[in-house]
């Protein structure tokens, strides 16, 4: 049942992010990215901890990785690893500010279809 609880937590965080974006239209950027991923890959990429980071960055910009780690009450090393994964998929940018790296959500609206029957991944980007 642990896997089911994890999936439920992940989905609650994900839907909360979507509801927030609908309620706050100023969050909608000028680009739309649609990513079609297998269920297995979505579960690996969008872990509850990574969704927590995305949500924290949505709610309030961060001044550094260490500041974000304090906000979410996690070790800096694990937050940094998760941010690197999110960066690799274009979801987060790490900008330099002096000697600090500042995590910033990418300026795109990301749409991830939740029910893709195939195990294929097919990213699609469209200008809106």
Explain this structure.
The chain has 128 residues and is an alpha+beta fold. It has one domain: Winged helix-like DNA-binding domain superfamily/Winged helix DNA-binding domain (Arc Repressor Mutant, subunit A), CATH 1.10.10. Helix content is 48%, strand content 21%. It contains five helices and five strands, in the order H-E-H-H-H-H-E-E-E-E. A hairpin with a 2-residue loop joins strand 2 and strand 3. Helix 1 (2-23) packs parallel to helix 3 (48-59). The chain starts with a helix and ends with a strand.
In short:
Helices cover 48% and strands 21% of the residues. By secondary structure, it is α+β, with helices and mostly antiparallel strands.
Features:
single chain, 128 residues, alpha+beta, Arc Repressor Mutant, subunit A, two-stranded antiparallel sheet, globular, disordered C terminus
Question: What topology emerges from the helices and strands here?
Answer:
Layout: H1 2-23, E1 31-36, H2 39-45, H3 48-59, H4 65-72, H5 76-88, E2 92-97, E3 100-105, E4 109-111, E5 122-127
Parallel strand pairs: 1-4
Antiparallel strand pairs: 1-5, 2-3
Describe the strand arrangement of the main beta sheet, using strand numbers: 4-1-5
Main beta sheet: 3 strands, mixed
User: How many domain units?
Assistant: 1
- In the CATH hierarchy, the third-tier topology is known as Arc Repressor Mutant, subunit A
Low-confidence stretches: 115-128
What is the helix content? 40-55%
- Any guess at the CATH architecture? Orthogonal Bundle
Number of strand elements: 5
- The CATH homologous superfamily name equals Winged helix-like DNA-binding domain superfamily/Winged helix DNA-binding domain
Query: What is the residue-averaged pLDDT?
Result: 77
What is the terminal separation in angstroms?
Answer: 41 Å
Radius of gyration: 15 Å
**What proportion strand?**
15-25%
Give, in order, the helices and strands: HEHHHHEEEE
Structural class: alpha+beta
């Amino acid at each position: 049942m642990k896997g089911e609880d994890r999936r439920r937590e992940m989905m609650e965080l994900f839907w909360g992010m979507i509801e927030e974006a609908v309620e706050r239209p100023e969050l909608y950027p000028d680009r739309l990215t649609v990513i079609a991923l297998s269920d297995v890959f979505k579960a690996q990429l969008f872990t509850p901890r990574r969704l927590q980071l995305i949500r924290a960055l949505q709610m309030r910009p961060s001044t550094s990785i260490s500041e974000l780690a304090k906000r979410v009450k996690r070790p800096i090393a694990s937050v940094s690893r998760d941010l690197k994964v999110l960066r690799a998929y274009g979801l987060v940018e790490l900008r330099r500010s002096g000697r600090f790296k500042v995590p910033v959500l990418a300026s795109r609206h990301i749409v991830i279809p939740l029910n893709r029957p195939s195990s294929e991944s097919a990213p699609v980007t469209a200008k809106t």
